Please model this.
Amino acid sequence: MSYLKQLYQPIKVPSTGLFSVENKKYFMGFCAFWLFIAFLEFGQDYISSVLQNSAFRAGESLAYKLFWPLFIPFFIALDFGIAKAGERTSGFLYIAVLGVQIIMVTFVHLLVFSVILFGVSILIHDNPMTLLYILFEKLSTRLYIALSVYTALSGLTVYMKRRRTGEKQASADQPQTLTIKNGRSNLVVDVNDIKWISSDGAYLDIFTDKQKHVRLDSLKNIIEDLPNHFKRIHKSTIVNTHRIEELQSRGNGDYDVILDDGNQVRLSRNYADALRGNLL
Model:
């Protein structure tokens, strides 16, 4: 696993769409999926040749299976085109450009695939098939598959992009500061500087990178003034989840929450749902 991680880290995803840098894991899964499909079809060819007692030409079979891995480079190109179209067009024009891109990528995919098969045919057969014959044959048997796949992936790309845009907008709309009364003045604190908040009777201790502030309030009230990444993890504690470095189980359902500055607070099993799906 560590070897795979070393290979994974330096891979740069050349896209601003579905496979943007922060979604690199989806790109890896996308590549693995198409290679797996090609492998399955290759294995099916071999089993079929054994059952029918016919000759099995591995090179020729592999060439035909390249139809599936070719979705990787061509969808990367399409994904990039979708992202650029979204930056420069909108409304009906955006849909029209998207449709043209899907059709163009589909035809180029089938053309490249046909050229590969034509080259293999020349190498293997005494009477190779013509390029035009192969191209027409692939247009009649693979066009609907390629067109369906690119259309579905493009729809997924548009959906994911809109979803990420909505999440960023929702995050931008959340409060970024917290006001704390300090004697006769009000102190404005950046919420990103807050590490955790603990209750002490009628008061709250607010721990930031620089100091501890005291505010007359309750955890129930103050959490409504904080962004969503602040979670209540104990009846007396709210934590900034962006500052969590590690969770260490206590073996009874509770956890010690280790923060990025080395401090630790306790996560009660009664509040574990707050971090479930994110850190648990």
The first strand starts at residue 177 and ends at 182. The chain has a mean pLDDT of 84. Helices lie at 2-8, 24-51, 58-65, 71-88, 91-124, 131-141, 143-173, 219-222.
